[in-house]
Amino acid sequence: MDIRIGIANSPREIAFESSQTAEQVQKIVADALENDAKFVTLEDDKGKIYVVPSVSLSYVEIGSESSRRIGFVA
């Protein structure tokens, strides 16, 4: 699943693929924001951990769980 995180006052975004489901990612982000947690922590499919300050979140885009096609599209 593709995840993109927009950071306030930054022209770039964090983009990575995760093996977590859309529901898991949504719950992690929602819980952190509702409970005034200082950080949101997500893990990509290679085991890297991303720790983002909650106050810096502009948006979190959760992509579809469908796999990417390989090759040319006719």
3D architecture notes:
The protein has about 70 residues and is of the alpha+beta class. The protein has one domain (about 1-60). The chain has 1 helix and 5 strands; from the N terminus they run E-E-H-E-E-E. The chain has one helix spanning about 20-35, and strands at about 1-5, 15, 40-45, 50-55, 55-60. Strands 2-1-5 form a 3-stranded antiparallel beta sheet, covered by helices on one side. A two-stranded antiparallel ribbon has the order 3-4. The two termini are about 25 Å apart. The mean pLDDT is about 90.
Order of strands in the sheet with most strands: 2-1-5
Helix content: 10-25%
Biggest sheet descriptor: 3 strands, antiparallel
Question: How many structural units, i.e. domains?
Answer: 1
Q: What class do helices, strands and sheet pairing give?
A: alpha+beta
How would you spell out the order of helices and strands?
EEHEEE
Radius of gyration: 14 Å
Overall geometry: globular
